[in-house]
Structure formats: C-alpha cells, structure tokens
Amino acid sequence: MNKKWFVILIFCFLFCFFDCPIVRADWTRRYESKGMAGAVWVYGISEVYDVAIGSSALYVVGRIYSLPPTISKSWRLEKRDLANGALLDVATLANSWPWVYPSIVVRDVDPNKGLYIGGGVPGFTGEKIVEKRNLSTLAFEGLVSTGSTSYGYNEIVIDNAGNFLYAVGAIGNVMNKNGIDKLDLSTGVVKGLASGQYEQIAIDNTGIYVSEPQPKPPVGAGKIEKRDFNGNPVWSYNTEWPVADIAVDNTGVYVLQKKFGDWKLEKISLGGGAPLDSVKGNTGTTECTLGTRAAIAIDATGLYYGRGEKLPAPAGLNEHQWVIDKRDLNDLSNVLWSTSMDFGDDKYDDGAVVKHSDCVHSMAVDVAGLYVGGIIGGPRGALWGAADWGLAGIDVGGGGPVGPYIDIGLRGYDGADTVIFAGEPVGVLTSPLRISKGGVVYGIALVDPADAMASKFRIETNSGLKVIRKF
C-alpha cells in the first residue's frame, strides 16, 4: 500500500481533542492485584511508602505480601529511570519489619555517599536499623542497629554535610513512644537526642524540625518543634490538627495537617514558629486518614500536595483517586495547577471488582520532575486488603508527564477504550508521522511493536514497522 494512503487510513481511526487536560502521568505503573476465589487472602499486594531522587535514578521502597500457605511480608527496594520509570534494579530488604514504614534518603556525594534506609527488624522486641546500600547496584554496604529494644525507625534525614543522619523511631517496645536519634555516618555511633511521640522529621542548615501528635492521630491536635543539631529545643508551635508531613525552605516551615477527611496546609516562620499562611480543605472521605497517607514536597517554584480524594458522584462509595496540587509558596490558597489520577476498579481472577481507596504516601521533587508513590487498592478479604502500588512521574511546570513525550490531544479507539497517543515536544521532529495544530507541527511518537508503551496502531516506515506510542 502507498505510505501516503496508509497514513490517511490510520487517521480515519483517530480523533483529536486538542487542549485536553492531562489526568494520568506518562509512566504511572499499575500492578494488578490478583485473588483466589472464596479466599480471604490475596497476593500481589504492595504499597509504595517512600521515594528518593538521586542524580541518575529514582529509588523506591514498597511493601510486599506473599501468597499462603507461606505468609511472608518484606520490603522491596527498586531503582528506576528518572525519565520513563523503567525498572533498573531491585533488592529485597529482609531486615525491615512490615509494621514500620521505611524511609529512604540519597546521599549522592562523598563523604558517606550511598542510599540509606531506615526501618526495623521483626518482633515486638525488634530493633531500629539503618541500612546502607550502593547507589549503582543496590548492594548491601552496612547496617547500624540499636539492639533489641524497639520497634524501628519510620523517618530519616541527612544533614547537608553528609556527616550525620537524624531519625525518629520507637523507644523501647512501646509503639506510640518515639524518640529522636542522631547517627554518626562515619563511626556508626547512635545518640538519643529526645523522647516523645515524634513521627515526622525535616532538616535545613540550622536544625531539625519534628512533629508530635497530641494525642495520637487521627484526633486531637499536634505540635511542631525546632531543635538544634544536638537536640536542644529552639521553639515549638501547636497545630490545630495532627501533623502528616513537614517540609522546609529558606522562607518557612510548611506543615500538612490531617483530621479524618479534613486537611490543612500551614506555613510558619523559621525563626519562632509564628503562623504566616494557611488553607483548609476536605477530601470527601475518611479513607487515607493516617498521617502516612498524604504528602507534601517543595522546590523553588511551589509546594506540591498529594492526597487521596473521593471521586464525585455517581462514583461508588469507596471509589477514590490521587489528586496532586501545585500551590504558591507565598499564598497556599493559590493553586497553580492540579492533576488527578483515577486508577479505576481493581479486577480479580475470579471476576470480583473492588473500588479503590487510593492514597498518596510520599513525594519527591527536583528539576527532573515530581515523583509520587502510594497505594491504589481497595479492601478485599478478612485479614488484608488488596492493593496495587502506584508510582507516577509528573512535570513540575504544568502537571504533565515526566519524559520526552507530551499529550498533543491525539486519541484513538481500541475497542471500547480510548487511547491517548504520545507526541514529541515542540521543536522536536524525529518522527516521520506528524500533525499540525494551530500552525505548530508535532511529531507523533513511534516505537517498536515490542515496546511496553506500544499501542495497536501500526505504521510501516522506511525504518520498518513501527507503532504509535501510548501516552
């Protein structure tokens, strides 16, 4: 067939909705949960609990459950490509206790270059641990343990000089009593700085910032404390609701608070914890209530807030979606852009369909993009809920995807499903298949038929058979 007419034929099956909002990130990954008919257990359960950005890769830690009769729980560490999310390497963290949500931090330069993971060893008299891993290979390079006295660490940070790691974690075998520890990365010596109910921690060049619920979430109020690097109190600030996350820059401390379905973003001063700005909202649901199930991140251009929200009617009672906002650092009520991701229903081998209670657990941001990890799953079974895990890369400028492709408004049908086709950025015209919009010519992205993002729309080119890439 003449190639010109082949292209025309292809476009008979396509339709365009230009200027459509982008609602799904370019490399959102979805791992289907699968269940056994009539069984209370499911497998394939996994949740992303933390993400960290290195100079050449993204690092992800998530929770894995295995199938009966050998029930096991472990943490999975992954290294992924920053541009397209491709899996580069994987390791299992056998030492991390499933009840303790691990935290990961990247130290990309010497001294003490490496990937650090805070967690805990299994058992009610377990131990707080920090693992060090090689950034390139994920190989184990060392372990610091506090001994059999506690549940584990749940959040860690490293100072800018790379000398000390600061962590919040349980004191003794009392789950709701957390302390602040300081770990010398060169010697492995751990020093306790304070005791309380500390749950989140952030750091800058002047000290550490920790949160303490009063009482335990999701009810009551909260408190932010600033301490110097030796643990001495500098100031404290009482928050209206329990604190879910903290971020800090050179203009203030940003605090995410959650109470059931309500949330509050607040900015307080660096010098004395005085209130500077705040905004409130509601997710429309009591799902994703715990402090670990929402996140904020900041860069020089804005604050990013990720959460799970109930879908508008007529969605099902437990149908949720991820929502990520970018907000003005000096006016938190000013939403610069917002994007949502509805991962749909969870379908099982036995035909059952479960509505999702999608929650955001963690976010990290740099010039490459905003990376969001969390849970995309709904409850099924008496003991454990079925949950996929989601990972998304989002362009910080406008909520679009991370990577070399854009949404140019080109759509196609695959049965009853609508396929969004990927386009090349403005000024990039490597594809022989092109389309014009408003006087601007865009290349339509073509990939090999075996590509993971290949659609079913094929075209013969001078380089052989190609497929239009999905967005």
What would your notes on this structure say?
With 471 residues, the protein is an all-beta fold. The chain has one helix and 39 strands. It has a four-stranded antiparallel beta sheet with strand order 4-5-6-7, with no helix packed on it. The chain is globular, with a radius of gyration of 23 Å. The chain starts with a helix and ends with a strand. Residues 1-45, 347-352 and 378-387 have low confidence and may be disordered.
Mean pLDDT: 74
Which geometry do the CA atoms define?
A: globular
Q: Please, how many helices?
A: 1
What is the CA-based Rg, rounded?
A: 23 Å
Output the strand order for the largest sheet. Answer: 4-5-6-7
Percent helix: under 10%
Number of strands: 39
Give the helices and strands, then pairings.
Blueprint: H1 3-11, E1 14-16, E2 34-35, E3 42-43, E4 46-53, E5 58-65, E6 73-80, E7 87-93, E8 103-107, E9 114-120, E10 128-133, E11 140-145, E12 153-158, E13 164-171, E14 174-184, E15 190-196, E16 201-203, E17 208-214, E18 221-227, E19 233-239, E20 243-249, E21 252-259, E22 262-268, E23 275-282, E24 295-299, E25 302-310, E26 320-328, E27 331-341, E28 346-347, E29 353-354, E30 359-366, E31 369-378, E32 386-394, E33 406-414, E34 417-423, E35 434-437, E36 440-443, E37 446-447, E38 454-461, E39 464-469
